[in-house]
Design goal:
Elements: E1 9-12, E2 15-31, E3 38-52, E4 61-64, E5 70-73, H1 77-84, E6 86-87, E7 91-95, E8 98-103, H2 112-122, E9 137-151, E10 155-166, H3 175-185, E11 188-199, E12 206-216, H4 227-230, E13 238-247, E14 253-262, E15 271-286, E16 289-305, H5 311-326, E17 351-358, E18 365-373
Antiparallel strand pairs: 1-2, 1-7, 2-3, 3-10, 4-5, 6-9, 7-8, 9-10, 11-12, 12-14, 13-14, 15-16, 16-18, 17-18
Length: about 375
């Protein structure tokens, strides 16, 4: 074990660095994309220290014998240097008996308790707290190690440059467990958005656009998993026209643009788009009576739905809409008065004159064109 109790030492990915000489410690604020909010802090530490084979944490490297038995041996110096160079390595920097700086990838966060126990033994049995060992790393810690001097085959003095960015979790309280839960349940570091409204001068209908960007803690999180965070609620009377997501090249942010369009009238669920027209025509002549006035109605409809809606269900919705307008299923003497008639009781029923249905093969939509005639008792007199 390291002999320098209450001294400055470091832990890097299972390797203890002792007799450390600190050269510089710098901290920089990381702002969000607007430059307004402080969302993280970047720490840069430059120091030198002693590494040795006997100060490698754990049982050592595992080898398998010809019989399949696992045996452990010490790491050589080349393997130790490989362990401490790179990115996303667990790191803790001790001054006296306290952890002053730490950078722990979320996937290795629970191991910090075991490391703290070992550090306590190094520091003469003083308890080491782990509540401030932040797991919420925006970018995995980057560690560069260069050998200054070798002491035989078992130890060496090494120059270190460590850089990591973290998001403090003091605001939620509760110590390390709360910090861990915060990161595990919410990978978001920053979310900024703004809203743009465009109003049509003829109809006064509005198109609303949500633009924004969400930044995540690190590249271990797929930014598309955070889509649920940026989805705004749909305002009553609006239709969600389009949703666009764009992932950044470094994989740590997701830009989005969501467009909602206000509708004059909304189609019944689950119809996503529709067009339609209803025409009423008064014509003369019925049963040889050229003075009779015969109202006729015609409706043209086209309905579109999402890919998971069956066309049979969509067809049923379309027929319901057509029947509401045309009264195809009305029985004589009931219902509302047909166009051109003054009494529903004299309604003789609806006569369908033409009916056509069509569906395109390349999309989930159906169309119809239906014409009816509304004869009534007055036409027979």
């Amino acid at each position: 074990m390291p002999a320098d109790n209450y001294g400055t030492m470091a832990y890097i990915n299972g390797v203890w660095v002792t007799q450390c000489f600190t050269q510089a410690i710098d901290q920089e604020l990381v702002m969000d994309a607007t430059g307004i909010d402080h969302v993280a802090t970047t720490v840069k530490i430059r120091f030198s220290g002693l590494i040795a084979k006997q100060y490698v944490h754990g049982t050592g490297k595992m080898n398998t014998t010809s019989s399949g038995t696992a045996v452990y041996s010490q790491y050589d110096m080349g393997e130790i240097l490989e362990k401490i160079n790179g990115t996303r390595k667990p790191f803790a920097f001790f001054i006296d008996d306290q952890v002053s700086f730490s950078s722990w990838p979320i996937e290795d966060y629970n191991n910090r308790i075991q490391v703290a126990s070992t550090a306590a033994r190094f520091a003469g049995g003083v308890a080491i707290t782990v509540d401030d060992w932040y797991p919420s790393i925006k970018e995995g810690g980057k560690i560069v190690a260069n050998v200054i001097k070798l002491y035989g085959e078992s130890s060496a003095r090494v120059q270190f440059e460590v850089e990591y960015t973290y998001v403090p979790c003091e605001d939620i309280g509760g110590g390390s467990t709360a910090s861990y839960n915060r990161v595990a349940s919410s990978p978001v570091m920053s979310l900024r958005w703004y809203v743009q409204d465009n109003i049509d001068g003829n109809t006064w209908l509005q198109t609303r656009t949500f633009n924004g960007k969400i930044e995540l803690l690190n590249r271990n999180i797929n930014p598309h998993f955070a889509r649920y965070v940026v989805m705004p609620p749909l305002t009553k009377g609006y239709k969600r026209q389009s949703i666009n997501y764009s992932e950044s090249e470094d994989g740590r942010s997701l830009s989005f643009s969501i467009i909602d369009r206000e509708m004059f009238i909304q189609a019944p669920f689950p119809v996503t788009n529709f067009t339609g027209s209803w025409t009423v025509t008064q014509s003369t002549g019925f049963g040889g009576n050229t003075d009779a006035i015969i109202p006729t109605g015609r409706i043209s409809l086209s309905l579109t739905a999402a890919k998971n809606v069956s066309k049979r269900y969509l067809l049923g919705k379309m027929i319901n809409i057509a029947n509401t307008k045309l009264g195809i299923l009305d029985t004589p003497g009931s219902g509302n008065a047909p166009p051109g008639s003054t009494a529903a009781s004299r309604h003789l029923g609806t006569v369908v004159t033409t009916m056509s249905f069509s569906e395109p093969m390349h999309e989930n939509s159906v169309s119809c064109d239906i014409s009816v005639m509304y004869p009534h008792a007055d036409d027979q007199e």
